Amino acid sequence: MSSAPLEIRAYFISHPLEEIKPLELAKKLNLNHDAVRRALTRLDKENPREVMSAGKGRYCSVFCTKPGRKEAYRERKKLKELSPESKRAALRIQQESAFLREILFRTYGRICSCCGENNPTMLTLDHRNGDGATHRRQMHGRLFKVWKQAILENDPQKWRILCHNCNIATYRNGGTCPHQREANQ
Question: In terms of pTM, does the model score above 0.90?
Answer without folding.
Answer: no
